[in-house]
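Section 5: illustrative case.
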């Protein structure tokens, strides 16, 4: 649980309305972080030497370009690796793309993450379509930025996947070792709650195996909402009603370091980190997790956390307040074994 990345949710506003969006971002939500709060987050992160990256996401942060440029510059000047996540709506021509990417680069940007998949496609069409992805990636590579293209899949039959992106880049003569393609399956949170991924049995079984693993996100990537709420992870749960189980404080009330210290004192988070949410349900709450997985067709660890934070919230609170000593003992043993 050593924090490495601080993900700052810059805004919930987005010019897209993707049907899988776990953040429930939308054109009508104008929530955006105050620059003073952003700066406080960065100042507080400076006190924690293990934090290396400030990742600015949303919503679509480029909708507030002036504020974004000031934010990037501030984080860069404090010595952080700075990442911005975008849907590339602004990249309909190569000239526009170069202009915006160069502004971001001059402000101190190191990494551009572009989201593109079957869910984003219909919305990107309104701003130019697929050529935006090509333009944005080309401009970023020309500026010497690292680029990640994030693709969310839901089915073996979806169109846009890793191979599709590789072909798209090849077709446009974009070849660089600075490009990473990140492929993931849809998470049933936010607007994506009713999308059940239709993945093949082999892939599904792989996912099920992962359910039993510890969570390496908790405590390493912290997220901050525009109102200052701090989350112990940046999982898709963070705008769900179960988000309170990973809510660890608010920056407007106390320094990030104090919030992190409190997180470290909470054995529940150590359980998630060392043993994972499956073990919380299985070993601590003595729940028949296999039948829950079948019943709810659960295929991601974050969905197990949602169960803990909704159906089992009271039990989990009771167990951690009543059996604290035993729980800490178990964790010490588990920690020695890992
Ligand atoms: S998934 Fe990304 S682009 Fe789509 S609505 Fe959400 S924030 Fe906007
Ligand atoms: S498994 Fe739980 S703790 Fe880990 S990222 Fe998902 S919601 Fe957060």
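Designed sequence:
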């Amino acid at each position: 649980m050593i924090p490495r990345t601080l993900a700052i949710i810059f805004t919930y506003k987005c010019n897209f309305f993707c049907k899988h969006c776990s953040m429930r971002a939308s054109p009508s939500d104008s929530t955006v972080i105050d620059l003073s709060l952003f700066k406080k987050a960065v100042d507080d992160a400076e006190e924690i030497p293990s934090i290396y990256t400030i990742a600015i996401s949303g919503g679509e942060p480029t909708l507030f370009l002036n504020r974004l440029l000031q934010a990037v510059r501030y984080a860069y000047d404090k010595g952080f690796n700075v990442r911005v996540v975008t849907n590339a709506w602004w990249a309909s021509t190569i000239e526009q793309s170069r202009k915006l990417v160069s502004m971001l680069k001059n402000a101190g940007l190191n990494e551009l993450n572009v989201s593109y998949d079957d869910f984003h496609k219909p919305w990107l069409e309104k701003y130019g379509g697929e050529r935006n992805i090509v333009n944005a990636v080309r401009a970023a590579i020309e500026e010497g930025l690292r680029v990640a293209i994030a693709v969310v899949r839901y089915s073996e039959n979806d169109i846009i996947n890793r191979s599709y992106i590789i072909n798209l880049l090849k077709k446009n003569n974009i070849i660089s070792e600075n490009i990473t393609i990140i492929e993931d399956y849809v998470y049933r949170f936010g607007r994506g709650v009713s999308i059940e991924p239709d993945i093949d049995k082999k892939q599904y079984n792989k996912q099920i195996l992962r359910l039993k693993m510890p969570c390496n996100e908790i405590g390493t990537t912290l997220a901050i909402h525009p109102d200052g709420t701090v989350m112990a992870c940046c999982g898709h749960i963070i705008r769900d009603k179960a988000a309170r189980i990973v809510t660890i404080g608010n920056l407007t009330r106390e320094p990030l370091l104090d919030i992190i210290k409190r997180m470290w004192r909470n054995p529940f988070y150590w359980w998630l980190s060392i043993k994972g949410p499956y073990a919380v349900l299985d070993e601590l709450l003595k729940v028949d997790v296999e039948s829950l997985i079948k019943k709810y067709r659960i295929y991601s660890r974050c969905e197990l956390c949602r169960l803990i934070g909704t159906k089992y919230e009271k039990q989990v609170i009771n167990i951690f307040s009543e059996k604290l000593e035993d729980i800490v003992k178990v964790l010490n043993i588990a920690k020695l074994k890992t």
